[in-house]
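Reply to dn_fold:

You asked what the input looked like. This is it:
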Amino acid sequence: MERVELMRDCQAVQIPAGHTVTLEKGVEVFITQSLGGTYTLQVPAHGGLFRIQGADADALGRAVEAIPSAEVSAGDLESMVWEQLKTCFDPEIPVNIVDLGLVYGMELSAVAEGGHKVDVKMTLTAQGCGMGATIAIDAKQKIMTIPGIAEANVDLVWDPPWNPQMIVPSARERLGID
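and this is what came back:
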């Protein structure tokens, strides 16, 4: 864990509740995970875990990554959505939600006003997992950064029930699961 003092106010999502709060400049935080362009923070002053987006990395003294602005085709959009979903992580598991087998489906459709709508169906490792709102918000926010995406919906579903066999082989090996 790396100790950092926030350099400016920034928005954060409370884990696991999913509520958005403002973390104030000067607050001491500990970076517990930095995967997929987001940062999971332990914030003693607020008594819990919070996640901030990569767009707020400067509040931690880190560089903010540029978001691409080029026009893309629908085929490119599909691959870009999947790549964005692969940057979403449970704050406690170092494997992205796609490789964990949590994403059951993704559909793109054109919208009348222009652009595309994305509908994602995903699940969690357990129905009692409190991370659902946090992970769904993260996925939606990341999808919405893609040029050409006008709307995104991330729905949690429970059928079929998730099981460890859904994890891709490389992630199973990383997690030490046979």
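Residues 2-60 form a domain with the SH3 type barrels. fold (CATH 2.30.30.40).
Hope that clears it up.
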